[in-house]
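[agent] plan:
  1. take the single chain provided in the ticket
  2. run structure prediction with default settings
  3. attach structure tokens to the ticket
  4. add a short note for the reviewer (M.T.)
[agent] executing step 1
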Amino acid sequence: MSRTLVIAEKPSVARELAAVLGVHGRGEGCLQSDRYVVTWAVGHLVNIAEPARQNPAWSGRWSMRQLPMLPSRFALDILPSTARQYELIREFLLAGDIGEVINATDAGREGELIFRRIYLLAGADKPIRRLWASDMTEKGLRKAFAQLVDGGEKRNLGHAAFARAEADWLVGINGTRAMTAFNSQGGGFFLTTVGRVQTPTLAIVVDREEQIRKHVPRDY
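[agent] step 2 finished; step 3 output follows
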């Protein structure tokens, strides 16, 4: 009989899911029974690869000549600190006794991104069902398991997640390298980070601080 692989986002959530499914057997990086293998991603196991891995011309000292960095296809890479957990999940995804996969990462864009990057990099082709749980109580999880949806229904959410991550990479890498190269023209290395969220948020904080410092109290 084939088993179902359940992939959660964190070990703590995996334990809760395993308890609901009646899975108590322990293995390396997983909990398992005759019917289920419950494992976890420890957050992001796979990220967009560094520029030098995308294109050898982007390695070495940062310079304006390397810009803009626009990969024709974004390569993915495994995070070294959690490489072993990725390999365990990959082995399960490709195992002959696994018949289907339940994506049980957090119900949202980021959870979808975490799962789909792992699934894509592993080269898996098992059918996917999605656990969509906003209520993490035992009752809520049982209800969510009873109402699993086809993974295809969340495909566009996955596309949106990939697009957001790639936009972050393009803004962050190109902006950071451009500003750093500009500020390092006189010699030395002056790291100047830029980010899609970080930079406008920092601008709001700075603008507000300037307003506070320039405030002139007056009687009312």
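[agent] step 4 note for reviewer: The longest helix spans residues 155-183.
[agent] ticket updated
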